[in-house]
Amino acid sequence: GQPDPSVPPSGVSCSGCGAELQCRDGTAPGFVPAEKYRSLSEGPDGAAGLRDAVCQRCWMLAHHGRALRLQLPPEQHRLVLSAALRSPPRHGRGPLLLYVLDLLELPDPVLPQLSGLMGPDVPAAGLLVVGNKVDLLPGDSPGYLGRLRQRVAAACAQAGLRGAPLVDVRLVSAKTGFGLEGLVSRLQRSWKCAGDVYLLGATNSGKSTLFNTLLRSDYCKSRAPDIVNRATVSSWPGTTLNLLKFPIINPTCDRIFRRQERLNQEATKTEDQLSSEEKKYLNHLKKEGYLVGEVGRTFQQQKSSTVIDFDPDMLSYSIDEDPTDSPKKTKKREEFTYNEVKDARWCFDTPGIVKDNCVLNLLTEKEVKLVLPTCAIVPRTFILKPGTVLFLAALGRIDYLQGEKSAWFSVVASNLLPVHITTLSNADAIYEKHAGHELLKVPMGGEERMKEFPPLVPQDITLKGIGTAEAVADIKLSSAGWVAVTAHAEEELLLRAYTPKGTALVVREPPLLPYISSIRGARIAGSAAYRTKKPPSLVENLKTTGKR
């Protein structure tokens, strides 16, 4: 589609990303091709005809999984967010900040910046931290969820947050629904409807997915899902460009009681009592994640019965005529009434804060899809001797330089990223020959791609083992994943880890999943690898039958 610089901006936001719809500049947020823009805005409703429209970028993401690059500097996301947080409090009270933290990214690089985004004169009423993507992590021991929750709480304390007291820490999966009913109950019982709620977090933390799930839960007004469009969701960083919102329902005592009745009733069901469609969807979610939950709705708008327009003239036509369809009537767009929103509290989805020193910033759209895990991560464990090298695609490398005994290296990363083991003497030649090609897979594009890709830079790491059952540390290779290192007690290891220049390499002590090396099958003969082993999935809010 072509732009038309003569047409002024619409004043209407894209229902997918929040950017103002316009047809002036194809490289700016909110672009709609001029022909489409005019067909929507020049109708009887004027600019209101654009209200259900999405911009070209959201349309391409939703229908083709393709991301159009925009001329939008990363600081623009911070300006939008900071302006929202510094606005005067509505209803005489500051907002509740719902910070969405990607558990795979601990320690979260954006959390320490939160205090700087908030204005000193408008303190938030509270901070509730949501550890998202818990469904992707395999349970390495009983009680691992409690340990993960403690790690998130420790990260909050280490970030030194000021001006927003920590209300709670919850673990959820916005994708599979695990923990979402508990989050809604927590919000309704403690925060009630006291003020607005802002979803904050880094890019790719899952804010928009959580926004869409809450939109179809008991947290929003019953008519909202029919009026408010879902946010655009994609693996491309920075999909949301401006504020999106839905109105929060007032959790009266009667509504809380009715909601609890529904939850109690659903908790008595077993998988065998589900309908065939529900079972099919549940099995799909089990393949996607280790932890699964159902998000239901207690308060739903009653649908009016469908009225069929009967046109007898359409049933008669001459032998020389072809039957024609009657013109479709334009469906009237539902709107909130004045009374519904005059004192409403809103839940806002905000633009993600772009992470500095992140490997995703260096990758193409296809490469990002391979690097970001979208289903349950199956850990891959290798036993390595000194003088051995582990490659995680061409995005990370770990050399085992010195040690007395073999050690175990457990890779926690997207199942689509290859792991290659070689000797120290062959490692440089392997990288030179196969980076950009199928063996190492990412980056992709051959020699031309690697000419523009930053070189790997080393960092020496010394670790002391604490026993063969427990990892001593995680070596986090930016956002590509991490490698948990398990060694014999008191055994000193000298390692050298590499990540692309300009990206962050973090040694995480203690490790996030310390017993991860126990999730493995038998050793593969003649190889450094063990057979992979995927733990079973757990379904929340369903009665167990004793079967797996």
Can you put this structure into words, describing what you see?
The chain is α/β, with parallel strands linked by helices and 548 residues long. The chain has three domains: 1-70, no CATH class; 74-267 and 338-356, 3-Layer(aba) Sandwich (Rossmann fold); 370-535, no CATH class. 24% of the residues lie in helices and 18% in strands. It is built from 14 helices and 18 strands. It has helices at 34-41, 56-64, 74-85, 114-117, 144-159, 180-191, 207-215, 224-227, 253-267, 276-288, 338-341, 365-371, 424-434, 446-452, and strands at 96-102, 126-132, 166-171, 197-201, 244-247, 291-292, 346-349, 380-384, 388-392, 396-402, 407-412, 419-423, 456-464, 473-477, 482-486, 492-500, 505-508, 538-539. Strands 3-2-1-4-7-5 form a six-stranded mixed β-sheet, with helices on both faces. Strand 14 and strand 15 (482-486) form a beta hairpin. The chain is globular, with a radius of gyration of 26 Å. Residues 304-330 have low confidence and may be disordered.
Offer a concise description of the structure:
24% of the residues lie in helices and 18% in strands. The chain is an alpha/beta fold and 548 residues long.
CATH superfamily of the largest domain: P-loop containing nucleotide triphosphate hydrolases
Uncertain residue ranges: 304-330
| Count of helical regions | 14
Q: Output the CATH class name of the largest domain.
A: Alpha Beta
In whole angstroms, how far apart are the ends?
53 Å
Broad structural category: alpha/beta
Helix fraction, binned, reads 10-25%
Number of domains: 3
Enter the CATH topology name of the largest domain: Rossmann fold
The major beta sheet can be summarized as: 6 strands, mixed
User: What's the arrangement of strands in the largest beta sheet?
Assistant: 3-2-1-4-7-5
